[in-house]
Design brief:
Strands 3-2-1-4-5 form a 5-stranded parallel β-sheet, sandwiched between helices. Helix 1 crosses helix 6. It has one domain: Rossmann fold (3-Layer(aba) Sandwich). By secondary structure, it is an alpha/beta fold. It has 7 helices and 5 strands; from the N terminus they run βαβαβαβααβαα. The mean pLDDT is 94.
Length: 232
């Protein structure tokens, strides 16, 4: 068995995943961060991933390129679809079909290669857009799959765990936790339609949840907004 306590941490460059990386590090894990260039329109988040991985002490950071954009069906990968700028009913068009299933599958393969059994992901089921792959039911189902779909799981080398430490927290609680751990949220990008400089639109779901989180947490919002787009 490996002496090092390793974990694979899914890192998007946003507020939640940065907090999860800080939590995993605080728990004593050697963190191997993995990010995905999946054809997202908000590509500025990939630069944020690099900044966050370095700032929070990831031992390794991989960026994997996959073609989810070729599937279509989401405003985050198809620029002909508009990102909603107001709350919408049901699951919004920013949902990317099978995204977290694909991401966790690749993270699982990476974990098996390096001998890690803990997968950390920043899913949240409180202040979120209602995506089906951000719920505890999804997390539990994938964990069961991981342990019957891998050589390491079947041969009893260890039990894979999907760790989602933010799943039941409000955005304000997440921000306070990250603040305690020294996360610099000014280097993160959460916006669904950030510009090439990483500046936020101020009106998408992600921007609204983030801004309200800082307000409720009673902490200054370090987000850089596009000119004239900061929430009032």
């Amino acid at each position: 068995m490996n002496e090092l306590k390793r974990a694979v941490v899914l890192l998007s460059g946003g507020l939640d995943s940065a907090t999860v990386l800080a939590i995993a590090r605080a728990e004593g894990y050697v963190c191997h961060a993995i990010s995905f260039d999946y054809g997202q329109r908000h590509a500025a988040e990939l630069s944020a991933c690099v900044r966050v991985a370095e700032a929070l002490g990831a031992a390794e950071h991989k960026v994997i390129r996959i073609g989810l954009g070729s599937l279509g069906g989401s405003a985050l990968t198809d620029t002909t679809l508009a990102v909603p700028e107001a709350p919408s009913e049901g699951i919004p068009i920013t949902y990317v079909p099978a995204r977290n299933t694909v991401f966790l599958s690749l993270a699982l393969g990476y974990a098996e290669v390096i001998g890690a059994f803990d997968l950390f992901i920043g899913i949240n089921a409180v202040d979120y857009s209602g995506y089906p792959d951000c719920r505890p039911e999804f997390m539990r189902a994938f964990e069961e799959l991981a342990n019957v779909a891998t050589k390491a799981g079947v041969e009893g080398e260890g039990r894979f765990r999907v760790r989602a430490p933010l799943v039941d927290l409000s955005k304000a609680e997440i921000i306070r936790r990250g603040h305690e751990l020294g996360v610099d949220y000014g280097i993160t990008v959460s916006c669904y339609q950030a510009d090439n400089h990483g500046r936020a639109c101020g009106v998408c779901d992600s921007c609204r949840f983030r801004a309200e989180g800082f307000r409720q947490a009673g902490l200054p919002d370090p987000t850089r907004y596009q000119p004239g787009r900061a929430p009032s």
